[in-house]
Amino acid sequence: MRCLEKFQAVVIKDRKAFQDPNTFYQLAKQEFGPLAEEGIGVSHAQMDILEYLVERIQQRPVFYQSLTLALLYQEIGKLTDYSASFPRWGSGGPMPSGAP
What is the pTM of this model? Predict the structure, then answer.
């Protein structure tokens, strides 16, 4: 649920919560393996841009809700119990009939 935690931090403008170096390092290790560096983070300019984008998205409730739900469903898809229950959805295959 790290992604949702980071999104919430941007929404409430809690830069300290967003700049959790341990979380960034763990995400970098997952993505880049041994090439990840511990000294990673986001600059003030990058945070300003993120906060501005979220403010703009919040002005359109449908987009804001869609982004929030996309992040939530992305996280749910990472849970093995749910992934095993819906193997075709996780593989990019067609959705079952009657699915939204």
Answer: 0.59
